[in-house]
Write a structure and sequence with these properties.
2 domains, 630 residues, 28 helices, single chain
Length: 630
């Protein structure tokens, strides 16, 4: 995975891209405040509104599209880096130019069909179907507006890449990869040949082109979208097929209350991270666990668990706690590999402990209850955290290499608890609101945003002038995920038209084997994919096929969500793409092997958890079955 920031020359295109990031951040804040207004109106004034949720969704759609150029500027559109980085500088420089041109081609397609989509809405004077009766063309204009900004920035990058290519000296061409022009022509020919497979066999063309684009360095968002677009073009009506589906699917992919939860929870985590709340949580955990063997290690897992109950992101959890915990662990002379593994594994709890980003994606893809999915991850998340803590205690007790911690008095513990309660209140608001039935998951995210903002500003942890920057930063992770969802939805409509899920079910039925063997094969497939793709991409590509299949085999959809999430946790620790490995490497400058060595025991614990939750599915399903959540 490659995510290094390149220097971008200043200019009006950059200003527009950054401006889009700021506009998106304030649009997200507006979503939160509007949703909070609905809650206040319902409970305080007994006057529920009929427009707040619709307006929040419309702002969310603009949020997702208008910030795409900014995310490209920040180099946050994710791609697989297992081949391109190994090319010699001149060859890579030319291929990078080709990749940007392919991305630009896709952005222009979205711009063209998005503009026609918005114009058609304007021409027929389209109104929304809700009670509010909103004119729709300004909402649908988000698609071409975002695609225009993205196209503009990509066009600028084409010029920049071309200038950079001209400055790279030509090599002598001693190996084939150093023969820049022939290698680039060959790679381009492979891409074109993959496209031409569609008329012969749609499913084969889809699989081959997707693998080629992903492993040749195109970001995941356009890779998925281009595959879907070519499939529709060649098999389902050419330009008319694209016109009927491309912009409509792009727009409707973000028209989801479940998905709006994701950037709201990410914003909560960003606000608390910027306000230094992660340090307060870690300090509290450290003061209360220092009497245990390996108390600092135990505190690390406790802090990761608490922050995971605030943020939806494993990477955010690993970064926030890692920046605090790793220096503390080093100060006490903890084994370095153990410390790396502790943080990498503890960070993975971010997608299991509710609220979970992977559960939000799962709900949006399958229409399972988001509240039930959240609560389904509670016991498995706590069991995994408990297993990590037990291992940390046993390792430190018998290894005994770390220094003894300083004595902590009860007044110090109570003061740390008092300070840490500000951060602990956030997950209590989120989970308590959902499970008591007071808030929907969307409303809990909005209330948590308002609480976090008031709390850090009121305590002087964040200045008013810092709020715009915090909002802008929160758009990076959110829009990266949302863009992948848009690309995956375009691919998903093609898979649906090709009846790929039905074909998978028919094939499995014809095998006449135990459904558990099928499940084992599914877990193996997800594990392998997770070695090369990040979590969201893996889920978006596979769930449209796997979810109908497991339901047809009689498995529980809520239980499967927990199992998929655990496999995705394991994927965060597997090279070459395991994101948490690279987070720890980035913080510590350690080698990949050192970090991996420390994660092995935790990976084995996760395998044990996978077996435990498979044998006893009630661990995941009992609590959701006993509670009414929305």
């Amino acid at each position: 995975m490659h995510d290094n920031r390149e220097e971008n020359p200043s200019g009006w295109v950059d200003t527009l891209a950054v401006g889009g990031g700021y506009v998106a951040g304030f649009a997200l804040l507006a979503c939160a405040l509007i949703t909070c207004y609905e809650v206040i109106g319902r409970y305080v004034f007994n006057a529920p509104t009929h427009w707040t949720l619709e307006l929040a969704i419309y702002l969310f759609i603009w949020f997702g599209f208008i910030s795409m150029a900014y995310v490209q500027r920040e180099k946050r559109h994710v791609y697989v880096d297992v081949f391109v980085s190994r090319l010699p500088p001149k060859t890579r420089g030319l291929w990078d130019l080709v990749i940007i041109l392919i991305f630009l081609f896709f952005a222009l397609i979205i711009l063209y069909f998005g503009a026609k989509y918005a114009y058609e809405s304007f021409r027929i004077n389209e109104y929304s179907r809700d009670m509010w009766k909103v004119i729709m063309w300004p909402i649908k204009a988000a698609v071409p507006a975002g695609a225009f900004l993205l196209s503009l920035y990509l066009a600028k990058e084409v010029v920049s890449k071309l200038r950079l290519f001209q400055t790279i000296p030509w090599s002598k061409g001693e190996t084939f990869l150093e023969k820049t022009i022939p290698v680039t022509v060959l790679l381009a020919a492979i891409v074109i040949a993959s496209v031409m497979l569609f008329p012969l066999n749609g499913v084969l063309g889809m699989v081959v082109l997707m693998l080629v684009l992903l492993f040749f360095g195109l970001p995941i968002f356009p890779s998925l979208g281009i595959v879907g677009a070519f499939g529709i073009f060649f098999i389902f009506g050419g330009m008319s097929g694209l016109q009927a589906s491309l912009a409509r699917v792009s727009f409707s992919s973000l028209e989801s209350f479940s998905l709006l939860c994701l950037p709201l929870f990410i914003l909560v985590g960003q606000i608390l991270q910027s306000g230094g709340v992660g340090e307060e949580i870690y300090n509290m955990a450290s003061k209360w666990t220092n009497w245990l063997p390996g108390g600092e290690g135990v505190a690390t897992i406790v802090a990761c668990t608490v922050f995971a109950a605030i943020s939806t992101s494993s990477v955010a959890t690993a970064i926030t706690i890692g920046l605090i915990a790793l220096p503390a662990l080093a100060l006490r002379k903890y084994n370095t590999s153990f410390s790396y593994g502790l943080l990498a594994a503890g960070g993975t709890l971010g997608i299991m402990v509710p609220p979970s980003g992977s559960m939000i994606i799962y709900s949006a893809m399958t229409e399972e209850s988001l509240g039930k999915l959240f609560i389904a991850g509670l016991f498995p998340g706590l069991i995994l955290a408990g297993a990590f803590i037990c291992y940390a205690i046993i390792f430190c007790k018998y290894k005994g290499e770390q220094e003894a911690p300083p004595v902590v008095t009860w007044p110090e513990r109570l003061q740390a608890l008092k300070t840490g309660l500000w951060g602990l209140a956030a997950p209590i608001i989120i989970m308590g609101g959902i499970y008591s039935g007071v808030f929907t998951p969307l409303e809990s995210g909005a209330i948590a945003v308002l609480y976090a903002l008031c709390m850090v500003v009121g305590r002087g942890k964040l200045k008013f002038r810092d709020i715009p920057e915090t909002l802008r930063k929160s758009t990076e992770s959110s829009t990266m995920v949302l863009s992948i969802i848009i690309g995956a939805m375009i691919l998903g409509i093609f898979m649906t038209m090709m009846r790929v899920p039905n074909m998978a079910m028919d094939y499995v039925s014809s095998l006449e084997i135990s459904r558990w063997w099928v499940m084992i094969a599914i877990f193996a497939l997800l594990t392998v994919l997770g070695m090369f793709l990040e979590v969201i991409s893996t889920m978006m590509i596979t769930l449209p096929i796997l979810y109908p299949l497991i339901i047809s085999l009689g498995f529980d959809g809520i239980w499967f969500a927990v199992m998929v999430t655990l496999v995705m946790e394991m994927a965060l620790l597997t090279p070459p793409v395991g994101l948490n490995l690279y987070v720890i490497m980035g913080i510590t400058k350690a080698s990949l092997m050192d970090v991996m060595r420390g994660t092995v025991p935790f990976f084995i614990i996760m395998i044990g958890g996978l077996i435990l939750f498979a044998v006893f599915p009630e661990i995941s399903t009992w609590l959701p079955s006993k509670m009414f959540v929305r």
